[in-house]
Specification:
The complex is a heterodimer of chains A (276) and B (359). With 276 residues, chain A is of the alpha/beta class. Chain A has a domain at 2-171: Diaminopimelate Epimerase, Chain A, domain 1 (Roll). Chain A is built from 7 helices and 6 strands. In chain A, strands 1-2-3-4-6 form a 5-stranded mixed beta sheet, sandwiched between helices. In chain A, strand 1, helix 2 (41-58) and strand 2 form a beta-alpha-beta unit. Chain A is elongated and about 105 Å long. By secondary structure, chain B is an alpha+beta fold. Chain B folds into 3 domains: 2-114, no CATH class; 125-328, no CATH class; 334-359. Chain B has helices spanning 37-63, 125-136, 144-149, 219-224, 253-274, 334-358; strands at residues 17-20, 25-28, 34-35, 69-70, 73-77, 84-88, 91-95, 102-104, 117-118, 151-185, 188-212, 234-235, 245-247, 281-293, 297-310, 313-320, 326-328. The longest helix of chain B has 27 residues, at 37-63. The chains are: A alpha/beta (276), B alpha+beta (359). The interface between A and B is large, with 57 and 73 residues. Strand 5 (227-245) of chain A pairs antiparallel with strand 11 (188-212) of chain B, so a sheet runs across the interface.
């Protein structure tokens, strides 16, 4: 453990230096970068090759950066970290720097998926990023890093393939894009209202057939000026004052059952982060 | 006995005269000559008086227990063909079943029994038949075979006896009313509700509330064909009756007054309640209404009674002989009702679901 910590510290120092000193030096890093020492060299290499293959196939970089504590590199949150890594190292493919970066911070078990570029953002929708996160979260919780990262790479490939076919993986997200929504409760409500309306309509139709009805009023036989109002007394009794608070409108939590959050990055990318 | 009954004959050809609602005159069946009510009244005044006197004599005999008036039926002889007419004890105008001539029994509508007013028929039998056919239209739950298969079994123009009640209702009512106002300040809503005790008292006058005075006539039908246009009320004359049936009343003014009084009470209470305005909620707490009845007037009002038969059931319709308002109960097709209910439920569910989906 001590060795791992030491190794991590050294790599972190190297990364820090490269972030701070060589931010614009077009320094490149691998597709899979393990500064926390959770992967063996062969594991990392295998995953790196796989990531390169997928990236080249879709012309959109798929990256992983694993550190012990992102706070050692940047101020702010893990999202700042992934953005900083992505842009400092000039990651991404093509002019719009298409790519997706998974940042893992082992100390607090934080993750962030950062997508960038026209194709990157199109392929990795908010829903898509959450799908990807779901694919690796369980393995990471079991400390099965290789399986989790394999799932990450595989799902990134799926996302990009779908996007390339013109159908990026996406759904309507209630708290972000209001629009048509199927809700079984709506059908129940509609059915109940329809029952009432149909019942009253049929009742009205039946009434059309029963017109021989005895009269209970005689208003037609009151002559003009036939109403004399003798007493018109409106007596005030008391007054009550009640005060109630206006219930605050609460918006649905961003992220819903996925447990993560999604925010727009300052560089035109998008994030999905959470814990594993 | 023959003197109790009279028929109006054409002075020109002695053919039977009938009252024509559209002409507003009596017209001869044969030569088509028409006469005003006043002309016929003057012509038959003496004969009608003799017939009325004969009826009075016969009634006295009935009171003494003499024969000839049995079990609510009375026998007359048709002045045209001599055939024996067996009539209801209340019949005042009828037609001879043998020669078809209209006959009047003036004694049924004279002296104490003489109506104060009559509204003459304005609409004809053809109008009534057309109104009934029109009545079937647009009734979605009416069984189709009913319209196709039912035939009018009987159609009669009847002068129905009515009591017209004047009266005054004294109403005194109490209400509890509230008025609310809400003000929003920051994150709170303050609602101020004021409570009032409201008291109203007043008098409502009524004129000529009609209640049918014949036990043979269905009350609901007679109520439902209201209103009549009282501007056409005319002093009673038997000359309006030929060609129609007419009964004298068999329910006296006291027996019928409750229906008029109930209507007057309800209306007076409604009118008092309508004066309570400017509140958000109004709840009646007490109601005391007393009705003082004036002298009731006796009138004959025109009604076309139509009856049809379908699937072993009789269906009765009544049409206001003055305004043409037709009422009556029709059969309901349960199959059509179920189909409409299911169809509407499904269609509306789909429609509402689609609306909610798009919202």
């Amino acid at each position: 453990m001590k060795k791992r910590l030491l190794c991590s510290l050294m790599l972190a120092l190297a990364l820090l230096l490269s972030l701070g000193v060589c931010a614009h030096a077009e320094a490149r890093i691998d597709y899979v970068n393990d500064y926390a020492g959770i992967l063996s060299d062969s594991e990392r290499q295998t995953l790196n090759d796989k990531a390169r293959e997928i990236s080249d196939q879709y012309n959109c970089g798929v990256y992983v950066v694993i550190v012990w504590d992102y706070g050692s590199y940047v101020r702010g949150n893990i999202e700042n970290f992934t953005e900083e890594v992505f842009h400092s190292y000039g990651l991404g493919y093509g002019a719009s720097e298409n790519g997706v970066l998974l940042g893992l911070s082992m100390d607090d078990r934080d993750y962030d998926i950062y997508a960038h570029g026209d194709f990157g953002n199109a392929a990795f929708t908010d829903y898509g990023k959450r799908q990807v996160a779901d694919s690796f979260r369980y393995s990471f919780q079991q400390n099965d890093w290789v399986s989790g990262l394999q799932a990450y790479l595989e799902n990134c490939g799926n996302m990009m393939r779908s996007a390339r076919n013109g159908e990026p993986v996406d759904i309507w997200i209630p708290d972000q894009a209001p629009g048509p929504r199927f809700d079984p409760m709506n059908i129940l409500i509609s059915f109940a209202v329809a029952l009432l309306v149909a019942g009253s309509s049929v009742s009205g139709f039946k009434k059309q057939l029963k017109t021989a009805v005895a009269q209970t009023r005689a208003s037609g036989y009151v002559p003009q000026g036939g109403v004399e109002l003798r007493v018109k007394n409106d007596q005030f009794v008391n007054r009550t004052v009640t005060t109630r608070a206006i219930p605050r409108q609460t918006s649905p939590r961003s992220g819903g059952h996925y447990g993560g959050t999604t925010t727009s990055g300052s560089h035109g990318g998008s994030h999905s982060s959470g814990k594993f | 006995m023959a003197d109790q009954i009279s028929n109006y004959q054409c002075p020109a050809c002695t053919g039977p005269l009938r009252y024509d609602g559209k002409l507003g005159k009596l017209q001869c069946d044969y030569c088509g000559t028409s006469f005003t009510v006043q002309e016929i009244e003057a012509l038959y005044k003496e004969k009608d008086e003799k017939a009325a006197a004969a009826s009075a004599q016969a009634r006295e005999k009935e009171d003494d227990g003499a024969a000839g008036w049995t079990q609510g039926l009375r026998a007359y002889n048709c002045p045209s063909c001599g055939a024996e007419l067996i009539c209801d004890a209340n019949t005042a105008a009828t037609s001879c079943p043998y020669c078809g001539n209209p006959s009047i029994i003036p004694g049924q509508l004279s002296e104490m029994l003489k109506p104060d007013y009559v509204i003459p028929f304005r609409l004809s039998k053809e109008d009534a038949i057309a109104a009934l056919k029109n009545y079937y239209r647009g009734k979605v739950l009416l069984p189709k075979p009913f319209t196709r298969e039912n035939h009018i079994e009987e159609i009669q123009g009847v002068y129905v006896p009515f009591w017209l009640y004047d009266g005054t209702a004294d109403a005194e009512m109490g209400f509890q009313a509230t008025r609310s106002m809400s003000v929003t300040t920051g994150n709170t809503i303050t609602t101020t509700t004021e409570y009032y005790n409201v008291h109203r008292a007043g008098t409502v006058h009524f004129e000529k509330i009609p209640v049918d005075a014949s036990s043979k006539m269905p009350d609901a039908h007679m109520d439902a064909i209201e209103p009549y246009d009282y501007s056409e009320l005319k002093p009673f004359s038997t000359a309006y009756l030929p060609g129609f049936l007419a009964d004298k009343y068999d329910l006296g003014p006291d027996a019928c007054s409750e229906r008029a009084e109930t209507r007057a009470e309800n209306t007076a209470a409604d009118l008092m309640a309508q004066t309570v305005a400017g509140y958000d909620t109004v709840v009646p707490t007490n109601r005391r209404v007393s009705v003082r009845r004036g002298k009731p007037r006796y009138a004959l009002l025109p009604v076309w009674m139509l009856s049809t038969r379908w699937a072993g059931e009789n269906y009765l319709f009544a049409m206001n002989g003055q305004t043409g308002k037709l009422v009556g109960d029709l059969p309901v097709s349960n199959g059509r009702a179920a189909a409409w209910f299911c169809g509407l439920t499904c269609g509306l569910t789909a429609l509402f679901s689609a609306i909610l989906y798009l919202l």
